[in-house]
Amino acid sequence: MVKQTIQIFARVKPTVRKQQQGIYSIDEDEKLTPSLEIILPRDLADGFVNNKRESYKFKFQRIFDQDAKQEAIFENIAKPVAESVLAGYNGTIFAYGQTSSGKTFTITGGAERYSDRGIIPRTLSYIFEQLQKDSSKIYTTHISYLEIYNECGYDLLDPRHEASTLEDLPKVTVLEDPDQNIHLKNLSLHQATTEEEALNLLFLGDTNRMIAETPMNQASTRSHCIFTIHLSSKEPGSATVRRAKLHLVDLAGSERVAKTGVGGQLLTEAKYINLSLHYLEQVIVALSEKHRSHIPYRNSMMTSVLRDSLGGNCMTTMIATLSLEKRNIDESISTCRFAQRVALIRNEAVLNEEIDPRLMILRLQKEIQELKDELALVTGEQRTEALTEAELLQLEKLITSFLEDQDPESKLEVGADMRKIHHCFHYLKKLLTDKKIHGPSRAPFSEVKDQVNQGPSTEEEYKKLREILQQRDNEINILVNMLKKEKKKAQDALHSSSMDRGEPRRSQSSPFPPGNPEGLRTLPLSAPTQAQDSSVIQYRSSLLHRKTGVREEMSLGRQEAFEIFKRDHADSVTIEDNKQILKQRFSEAKALGESINEARRKIGRLKEEITQRHVQQVALGISENTTVPSAPDPMEEKLRSQLEEEKTRYKTMFMRLKALKVEIEHLQLLMDKAKVKLQKEFDAWWAEEATSLQVNSPPVNLFNHVKPFPQTPESQHKRSQLLSNQSDVYTRKILPSPGPLLHSQEQSSTGTRLEDSIAKRPVSSVPLTGDSQTDSDILAFIKARQSILQRTDRPSSLPSFPST
Ligand code: ADP
Ligand code: MG
Question: Which ligand 1 atom minimizes the distance to the CA of 804?
Fold first, then answer.
């Protein structure tokens, strides 16, 4: 058992403005526990946070300042937890802090760069790397991903991939058994056999979360997300299984609302916006008080789910994320205070070992059979019925493998059945007589006998004979090896040709080598099993479906609008950047793949040469009737050292390629996610446009309601060029009444067409219909609006569209 208080760490998010720096200081001098001092600016100290103190000091295990990299966070915080999970203890890491303080960035990672990946992907990578290294145990890994919003649990890994709102996801409920163990009903567990599969699950969950989020529920700030890695391990043949869970928790924003009108008491009186965080605090307070017998875990779903992590069987770590800007000072102090309380909680982690009932049953059944047999033997109970054909066959097989077994200690175990024992003796006798009658002419033996008979069996002769025998053995071994190699080559050729046919995604264009030379471990990443591959493809394709499925049904007008929307979206820069990086990485990987293949060929050639050299030596030995020279052959030594060198080179390149592959996968998933996000935002924007188009049927009013595309600053100029090509026509169509901005002569005759066409449609058919007429109407309208806005040069009337 490991007794340990919850470890607390602080991480300060980089501030946008540098002048905020005087607000806090970090004291690392006190070697054991560093402290974070938050200094109240004077205007705040005698203002609304008027409790006379000017600075607050909080102790943490470690404090990570603004420049701390994700790598350092993983190494110092997550890796020790992952290690104890690998050893069989439960672990939890949770991030706590106000919205936008960097919880998601810390737990999951940033959406832009590979180096920004957070604790989850790094931990997955680490765990799978360790599992691969340890061949002494059989490991199984499962993943689950739970979101808790408003006291309801949702399964983010819903295999049906149909969710478009949170309510579409399967609802997860908490069940408690008589031993107070918590079970989550409806939360799916997905096996992940590789890092890649686990990463796919993470992105699937994140994408589901993003799609299900609406501006109304603000799921990302108001919900808790718990990504859990379930690890079980077992030694081969043993019935004891170790199970450990690692919860990686991204909590809801911890911001509080102040009680209005209570000036000086803000820091103590503020209430959580999120009720379940209030219950979390209650649990923490109860746990940190001595002699409290009742801990109110059951008050909220989150505290029920994390019951073991809080004061139970778990090694728990908290990361307090802080956005230390002046306006966040009270929230930051609250977060630190919360952490200080959490640090008082003592957990007791135990090894979670249990006996697997199925394995135990098998073992007991065998034991019972053995005891029965023994009993039958002791009591002399006779069985008279004849043995069945199957039993006889089974016995003969046993005898054959017994005879073939080189181990002199091996036993022929047939149980205590006298019929079987008798049959064995009969069979052996038969074998012996058969051998005597049709005994093979054993040349070597007769030769030996002759030699032995011819003269006195001196020690020397005996030695010589042994040497000859040894020599023959060597020759045979070499020949057998050569044969095997030929066979393997043929198989490889067959295999690679079938791979080419069977794996379109990875063949040809894939820079990853199809296999390893002998002696190097095969990486599951480069040679996934069929099951793995299909599940990966399934997840990927589900994302792609999200991404493209809607577009397939899009009308031309809407597609055009989407293209413009995409180009002008702030995220498109990131997508483009990632595309470029991805291209680079791909060509890097391709080059590396080619070098690896070259190295493989070289290794093959060297091995061939060594074998040939060996054969030559043996042949020489035979012709000169001497044994294989015991002195080392310098030529062979040289070849061997070259081989070793080449193998090392191969290994290094292979590891690099493996890392590159993970990066490429990650980037692809980031891009997929960004694209889904873009599509989602476009749909929302389009629907909004369509609605406002309808609500504000007099087009002149529309003028003030239509939002421009979400945009990057530089995109405005480009778009104005694009839109001006067509906008005149539409403008004339749309605006019927003589407006101050228009000078078209045709306006009155054609202007009401759009209005008419939309007014005739039922309300529900306007947004998101895929109805090409409506869509082109909307597009036309939007373009016109853009054009007018630009022409009138009234930037102040542009409502700003949230860029992300
Ligand atoms: P939260 O999940 O606490 O609401 P986020 O993790 O979403 O906050 O962070 C808010 C924004 O700040 C995101 O755009 C994120 O990329 C950025 N961010 C947070 N922490 C860091 C950091 N340590 N370094 C760089 N950017 C960060
Ligand atoms: Mg977040």
Answer: 14
